[in-house]
Amino acid sequence: xxxxxxxxxxxxxxxxxxxxxxxxxxxxxxxxxxxxxxxxxxxxxxxxxxxxxxxxxxxxxxxxxxxxxxxxxxxxxxxxxxxxxxxxxxxxxxxxxxxxxxxxxxxxxxxxxxxxxxxxxxxxxxxxxxxxxxxxxxxxxxxxxxxxxxxxxxxxxxxxxxxxxxxxxxxxxxxxxxxxxxxxxxxxxxxxxxxxxxxxxxxxxxxxxxxxxxxxxxxxxxxxxxxxxxxxxxxxxxxxxxx
Length: 243
Prior knowledge:
The chain is mainly alpha-helical. It contains 8 helices and no strands. The two termini are 37 Å apart. One of its GO terms (biological process) is negative regulation of phosphate metabolic process.
């Protein structure tokens, strides 16, 4: 029975890995559609999002079934709790990819202006951040996960830089406003993806070390007697909500 349970956990892990791969593919396609002004490629992102939504429902159902019937403890319990939350984060990443693809479609009908160099850089680093966060989770690599959390500041800085450039451009060239606003939306969606990648990295730490670090909870718990995480052997009043 125990061997069967762990085999099923591995299958769940594989489904989450597939879901993460589809979320990354959706992001890559949406940015490529933006770069090449390819409306048809942008439409393919929607198909990826539908598949991501379907996998999320399967993961949630299977995880809840495990929790209710198998009553796992310790790391297995943390894994299942994290699986539900990570699948939700990945589903939201798929939604942000769709938002970027929709901006790409709208931009394809507008006159093209000077390329914005910082936006492709922001996208590349955000996608890398997502890929590394998923890898840290799959490998139980808490040290790498912590470094990924620190990279979110760089993405925020790039977004601020893009905002400053586009705002200045809109003042100088009012005709560029529709395009600039769409590009601002793209940068906003990329920033949110980076936030969700950070969430996934935090889940990697939660599973590997039974530590909750969201909203600096790790710091506050150090001074609280009896503080702990689900499945860690100590009680907890609950985990802070996702971003």
